[in-house]
């Protein structure tokens, strides 16, 4: 039977590029770049992790798509077991983060 | 401002899902009672879907004002790890997916649902799944009155037990 690869969610070159850039930033955080700002909020070991990625590049992507991209990147960096500890993966533009009172400076 | 803009201006929160489910439950009931079987079933299925999502998110620690969107990606990863691989997620719309995710997550945390509730949840959502899926909107209605009754009964069970599912 022929093997077929199927992506779990619809991906465009733009969203794949966002995921790639996010993985790069996660693996090798750049001190110079202003964005993306990645916040990993873990209160204690084995408790759910909340991920926030503040990034102008999210543009008009829905919260659902942002969440998928963040999780795909996180899974690539931390592995499937690490991804299972995440309960929130939220992508926000700087303006949205400000509206929600998320401080990251 | 258009309806779409008005609706989109309020974020999709857990509480919004609960309120929407409640509102749509009675609208679905009106449709069913007026003989609009297909539309009633379609709307009632969404009620069950929203309530199952809310149950999982509440169990996972979400508060009423929390956004739903950022919880979807993590929930799907959890589903991939915890529930049988042959259960499709149907782009977050599968009633079987959400029901099994809740059951399996609770078991995984050594906090299973009471046996009677778990058995009913499995039975009701499996049966709902046999009558409702999100793509059914593209098909002409050919439902029978017994099927309307079944969907109503099962969605009503989910609604009546919605708090017990996550507490």
Descriptive terms for the model:
heterodimer; A: 105 residues; alpha+beta; GMP Synthetase, Chain A, domain 3; three-stranded mixed β-sheet; 3 helices; 3 strands; globular; B: 167 residues; mainly alpha; Four Helix Bundle (Hemerythrin (Met), subunit A)
Description:
The complex is a heterodimer of chains A (105) and B (167). With 105 residues, chain A is α+β, with helices and mostly antiparallel strands. Chain A contains 3 helices and 3 strands. Chain A has a single domain (13-27, 34-99), classed as GMP Synthetase, Chain A, domain 3 (2-Layer Sandwich), CATH 3.30.300. Chain A has helices at 13-27, 63-83, 94-99, and strands at 37-42, 49-54, 86-92. In chain A, helix 2 (63-83) links the parallel strand 2 (49-54) and strand 3 (86-92). In chain A, helix 1 (13-27) crosses helix 2 (63-83). Chain B has 167 residues and is mostly helical. Chain B is globular and about 45 Å long. The A-B interface holds A 8, 48, 62-64, 66-72, 75, 80, 83-84, 86-91 and B 12, 60-62, 66-74, 76-78, 80-81, 92.
Fraction in beta strands of chain A: 15-25%
Just name the CATH architecture of chain A.
2-Layer Sandwich
Overall average pLDDT of chain A:
87
Helix fraction bin of chain A: 40-55%
Oligomer: heterodimer
What is the fold named in CATH at topology level of chain A?
GMP Synthetase, Chain A, domain 3
CATH architecture of chain B: Up-down Bundle
Number of domains of chain A: 1
Give me the count of strands of chain B: 0
List low-confidence stretches of chain B: none
Globular, elongated, flat, extended or rod-shaped: what is the shape of chain A?
A: globular
What's the alpha carbon Rg of chain A, rounded to whole Å?
A: 14 Å
Low-confidence stretches of chain A: none
Q: How many E strands of chain A?
A: 3
How many DSSP helices of chain A? 3
Percentage of residues in DSSP E strands of chain B:
under 5%
